[in-house]
Transcriptional regulator (Streptomyces coelicolor), 203 residues
Amino acid sequence: MPDPAAPGTLRPGGRTARIREAVLLAAGDALAADGFDALDLGEIARRAGVGKTTVYRRWGTPGGLAADLLADMAEQSLPRADTGALEEDLRANARLVVRTLDDPRQGRLFRALIAASLCNEQAAEALHRFYAVRVDEWAGCVRDAVARGEVPDGTDPHGVVAAVSAPLYYALLNTGRSLTEADADRAARAASTAARAGVWVTG
């Protein structure tokens, strides 16, 4: 799986872009602090310093706002690694996941978005799209490994990438403990070893 989004740089785009940035920042802060229930559009408008009508017209519902926040995070996520070796590429992916999930704000934000996806259809669809974008980005590492002969032909790139972050998300959601680089390295090594052994070869 992909990394959760790492903050990027401000994109140009005039007043509309500035409004979106302010609203999404306020929404992310509210989610990280208080969860999905904190996404009251009127309160987000107040925090962002924009008109309530603007927020309701553009985003409509808390689910719509969460969905746009995820879209923005996907747009700003870091590109995949390209080290020339599959395990090193996957290690970079896993360490980025760990850094993001262990970040005080980003970790809470992703917990809130995952929780929102369980009770809000818009948030669920947006979370699925977010991960599809990020998995596809990092799947290039596996395609390159196939081309180098490092892993067998027919290896499922998306399956390998998903296998990297799956144990990290499990630890985040089910144990509550802090993640470490050792966790990241172990996840990358397990996924790359399985890929070389043909575990992810599909019909």
